[in-house]
Each structure stands twice: as structure tokens, then as C-alpha cells.
Amino acid sequence: NIDPSKFSGKPLLIPLKTKPVEPTLKEKWTLTEEDKQEMLIHPSDRVKENNYLGTLRQPKPSPLIDLTKPSKAWFVHGTWQDFNYFQQSLIDRTVKTFGSTKDTRFKWYGDNTPGDRMRGAISLAEDILKNHVSGELIVIMTHSHGGNVAKWAIKELVQKLNIDASEILLITINLPVRTEYVTPKGITHINVRSKELDWVAYFGGVDHVQMTMIPTFWDWEDSFRDDPDASANIVYEDQYPTEYLKTITEYGQIVDAFPKFNDAFANHNGPWKKNVQVWFPIMEQYLKLFDLQAQREKLYLRMEILDNQIADLEKQSLPGTQSQKILEGIQILIDIRSDMIHTIYALDTEINNLQIQIKK
């Protein structure tokens, strides 16, 4: 018996009863002109530009990241939620996978405005900076607009506070992909999305949704929710049907209030247990893939150093004056290089097999 008109212009989920204390905006957090311009992008221009409208893009190359480092993990909720949206089983599994010594259930303001997301990003960046130790891996797992909060926080950490991009792993779940929130270069970013239409992620692509801005069904493509910034986009089949959501008071009210969109909050529940059981193993495969690619890249870098050393020694061994020790040194380096090439071939085979397995 919910009156749909009562929801006009109001949050679809009950907002948090209390907000955290707003952090002091220190001088280093002063908005730049670039930041201000990003916040002023008009929704209609954003919809024309962003990848919701279906341009297929190749994922960016996987960056160099060391997943064997000790880590700390942050869990960032979405709009009008709190950190309890992450079920304990997901938190425990994430902490175990990355060997995290600390996990933080980060609570931000949670309102659906660029300003609130910016303030949440500043607060998140401050918390990460306060707890981060150089050389440790920063793991940030997010849901919905929490991913855009994290993207902006990462931008602050990397571009303004000189945190090494290779020490950050971002995992976004059910992310509303928007052009003004960009993952900085060098970040390992895994994006997890539902195979079926996710209305919340779609509507999250703008701050003020108008029906005239929504394309018709036949204009949508399966890739319209992929994040072009991501190192990998994982697609899972949602395990919670609309009928199940109706048994939950808040979601049931929303579903009943919007009969035209009777799956309004379906396909937006990636952090829930049954969905995690589908996409988490795929993510683990990608993590293994990134690790193998990082090993291969390190070998290529070492080979480059060896090649330079060999070239330097060859310059010292002029005809007629060749030193036996120099020749022996060159041969040792050549043998080491040969072993590296064999190791790279083995890694290539393992990487190709894993990529085929992931595609299946």
C-alpha cells in the first residue's frame, strides 16, 4: 500500500539516521579548478559520453602489482547504505584471500550528490593515508557509488599524496560507471557487474534522471555497464530473483511502488552471499592471472638489464685483447638470459591457459 508519488525526488532506500562528523578540509584537500569542472558536468552531456550507451572497449593492460605483500582492506558502501551491506562472509573471504592484517568498514555520508561523494572520498583518503604503511597493499572493495567515492579517493592518494599506484587494488561491485570518475593509471581495478539489467547502476549514471535521457531497450548492449578503466570486468548471473526481494521490507516496498520497474533492486546485490559464490572464484582467477603477468614483466625488466650488461662487457672485449674472464662473464650472463627465456615461455603457456579458462 505504498503511494508511488511519495517517492518522487526522494531516496529509494532509507537514509542513514546519523551522519559521521564531517572531516576538517585541510589545505591539501582544497578543490582544484579541474576538480570543480569535473563536478559540473551536465547529466545530459555525461549520458552522451559515458559507456552506458554501449561502445565496446578493450580492457586496459594489467598493471604491475605484487599480491604477496601484506595488506589492509577497506569496505566502502554505496548510496543510502552503510557498511552492513557487506555480509560478513564476504569480508572474511576477502581478508583471507589477501592476508589482510586489518579491515575497515568505512562509513561515508551516503547521499546521492557529487559533493557528498567528494567529501566521502576525502574522508576515505585521509583514513587510508593514516593507516597505510609504505610497501603494503591497499585493498579497497566497494559497492555501487562507493566505487566512485573510492576512485576519487585514489586520485587524491596517487596524484596529490604520492602513494604508489602499484600498491592499490580496487574492486568495484555494481558500479554506476560515469565519465567524471576515472581510475588513475597504474591501478589494478576489477569491476564486478550483473549480467542482467541493473536499474540502480543504470540510474546511478546521472544525478537527476529524466525519462527522456533513458535509451530504449533495443539501444542497450550487454557491455553498457563495463568500466573501460578496469583491468578486468567480471559478469555474474544474479542469484536473487525479484520474488525474493519482495520478502525484504524495504525492497518489497520499492518493488510494489514501482510496478513498471518491478525488478528495481534486482541485480544490484553483488555483495550478497550467493552472488559472491559466483563471482569471487572468477576474481581469484584474475588475481592469479595478474600475478603471472607481473612475474613475466619482472623477467622482461631483468632481461633488459642483462642485455645492457652483456653489451657493456662486449665493448670491453676488443679483438686481440679479449680477456678470458670477460668472455666467461659474458657466457654466464647469456646462460642466465636463456633460463629467463624458458621461464617466460612457461609463464606464457600458463597465462594463455588461464585466459582460456576465464573466458569459459
Could you characterize the architecture of this molecule?
It contains ten helices and six strands. It has about 350 residues and is an alpha/beta fold. It has a six-stranded parallel sheet with strand order 2-1-3-4-5-6, with helices on both faces. Helix 6 (about 200-205) links the parallel strand 5 and strand 6 (about 230-235). Helix 4 (about 115-130) crosses helix 5 (about 145-160) and helix 9 (about 275-315) packs antiparallel against helix 10. The radius of gyration is 24 Å and the shape is elongated. The chain starts with about 30 loop residues before the first helix and ends with a helix. Mean pLDDT is about 75; it is low at about 1-30, about 40-60 and about 205-225.
β-strand percent reads: 5-15%
Task: Give the low-confidence spans.
Answer: 1-31, 38-61, 207-224
Kindly report the spatial arrangement of strands forming the biggest sheet.
2-1-3-4-5-6
Shape: elongated
What is the arithmetic mean of pLDDT?
75
Major sheet summary line = 6 strands, parallel
Q: How are helices and strands ordered from N to C?
A: HHEHEHEHEEHEHHHH
- From the alpha carbons, calculate the radius of gyration and give it in angstroms: 24 Å
Helix count?
10
Query: What proportion of the residues is helical, as a percent range?
Result: 40-55%
The strand count comes to 6
Counting helices, strands and paired strands, the structural category is alpha/beta
Gap between N and C termini: 45 Å
